[in-house]
Write a structure and sequence with these properties.
alpha/beta, six-stranded parallel beta sheet, 34% helix, globular
Length: 366
């Protein structure tokens, strides 16, 4: 066993989640690499000092440059705003330090491509933090698909609906900038799920909409929701949608997959269950059955020995930390790498172009 110093840039929502994950992952998964919380940076030195004391870091960095340059920091986690990702990643990679970057990778395709190039040049572990697809339930679904349990896939639908943007108090920063709109901020999770479950998208036709042009006196200049009709390279047709103004939905990340031999339903609001339909079930017993996740499903047992007890949101981040440490330890890429993150950005770019031109677009062209 050996220690590895972890530096985290950002101490807010995701910064805290990653701090807790790296403080816990060594015990949960009994990893060979044992993380040590070396340093944390935030928007101000005072904030970093507060986070360091609260989360158990060895020190508070003056800024992200100070953190990245620290010899005690051997791997960097970026949990800062999107417009900072490229610069931080390039600096860390230039020093040969592995990087786990929150989604989406950057502001646009150009930044994502630059991060991919920097990672290739460094030759070290790199990952994008798409955590929802890592639930034991969704990992099990990926296994079922790989085994051909549904037969030939004939249809796919994925949504990511939430209602946080209809709150009475809306942060002004969420109302401006493409990266902070639904397509830049929320839809990437649904796109990532589609790519993980169904493979590359050959072409798409998208409509982007701003439902509320004014939020409590704040002008909204970015989008509230997006609808995409897609055709995957496999030939399967599908639909991807996302909304940040879907009244009543809190974590509406859900998908349905239909095949010639069966079908699957999953909803993140019930993240410990998969609904499976098998065409060949006996007459009178046909219907979706609820499968509760347990120790036999991927990455469940390290958390709990009891089936049906379930895992939660923070556990997804711990699984993510385990995957990152595995990539560093083995020297082998663990999905989703920066290249996989670039694929998401290409779909986003194609969706924007499709909406503007009212035409089908191919992500590979961006």
């Amino acid at each position: 066993m050996s220690e590895i110093g972890i530096g985290i840039v950002g101490g807010g929502y995701m910064g805290k989640a990653h701090s807790v994950a790296f403080a816990s992952v060594g015990a949960v998964f009994e990893t060979r690499l044992k993380p040590r919380l070396a340093a944390i940076a935030a928007s101000t030195p005072a904030s970093a000092d507060r986070y360091a004391k609260a989360f158990g870091f060895a020190r508070a960095a003056q800024d992200w440059q100070d953190l990245v340059a620290d010899p005690a920091v051997q791997a960097v986690v970026i949990a800062a705003p999107q417009n900072t990702h490229l610069e931080i990643a390039k600096a860390a990679l230039a020093l040969g330090k592995p990087v786990l970057c929150e989604k989406p990778m950057g502001l646009d395709v150009a930044e994502a491509r630059a991060m991919v190039a920097a990672a290739k040049g460094a030759g070290v572990a790199n990952m994008v933090a798409y955590n929802y697809i890592r639930t034991p339930a969704s990992q099990y679904v990926r296994q079922l698909l790989a085994e051909g349990a549904l037969g030939r896939i004939t249809g796919f639908r994925c949504v990511h609906d939430e209602d946080f943007h209809i709150a009475q108090k809306t942060p002004a920063w969420r109302c401006e900038g493409e990266a902070n709109g639904c397509l830049g901020d929320l839809a990437p999770h649904a796109i990532n799920a589609a790519l993980a479950l169904m493979g590359p998208i050959a072409e798409l036709n998208a409509v982007i909409e701003t439902v509320y042009p004014d939020r409590n006196g704040i002008p909204v200049t970015n989008d509230d929701q997006v609808q995409m009709m897609v055709r995957f390279e496999s030939g399967v047709m599908g639909h991807i949608s996302a909304s940040r103004v879907a009244t009543g939905r809190k974590m509406g990340y859900a998908y349905e997959i239909t095949g010639t031999e069966g079908a699957i339903r999953f909803d993140q609001e019930d993240q410990n269950a998969v609904w499976l339909y098998c065409k060949d079930d006996a007459i009178g017993q046909k219907g979706f059955r609820k499968i509760l996740t347990g120790p036999d499903h991927p990455d469940y047992l390290p958390f709990c020995q009891g089936a049906g007890h379930g895992t939660g949101y923070q556990d997804q981040i711990i699984i993510e930390a385990h995957d990152f440490l595995t990539a560093i330890d083995t020297g082998k890429p663990v999905w989703p790498t920066f290249e996989a993150g670039l694929e998401v950005h290409q779909v986003i770019a194609a969706a924007r172009a499709s909406n503007a031109a009212r035409s089908w677009q191919s992500p590979s062209g961006f």
